[in-house]
Amino acid sequence: MRAARIVAPKQFDFVDLDMPQAGDGECLIKLEKVSVCGSDIRHGYGPIEPEEHYPMPAGRPCHELAGTIVESRTDAYHEGQRVIVIPDRGTGGLMEYLVSRPGRMILLPDEGPLDEWVMCQPPGTVLLLQAHGHPASEERTCGIAAKAASA
């Protein structure tokens, strides 16, 4: 499997990795779309990380991902379903395949392009905060929209 790896400040290399294996309760997802988040740019491309942080783990950064399940070892999802994947901390999506647990996946409809569905994550952050009561209904807020990039 191919993956990108940041090996020096603002420098990527492609590496070959073993194909990940889904364990019990997990799914193997073929990643098809990646969105670059503002935190990916801040942590992955600048400011410059200390020298001892290079090379970074393969696949990092990029944590807004969409793809198709190619193997399922859980009753929660099945092969062929499309999902948004939120990788575990320290893992990224600049790779062909990723193993994930159901709690880190969001089922997508069969219709609609994945490059549009992956863009659901930025507004999803706002909805999550609202679900947790932030801001409170009596508070005023200002929303600032930024366009994310999808590839």
From TrEMBL:
Keywords carried by this UniProt record: Oxidoreductase
The protein's name: Alcohol dehydrogenase-like N-terminal domain-containing protein
Entry-linked InterPro entries: ADH-like_N, GroES-like_sf, Zn_alcohol_dh
Naturally occurring in which organism (per UniProt): Geodia barretti
GO molecular function: oxidoreductase activity
All copies of domain Alcohol dehydrogenase-like N-terminal, residue ranges: 23-106
Spans traversing the lipid bilayer: none
Xref: PANTHER family: L-THREONINE 3-DEHYDROGENASE (PTHR43401)
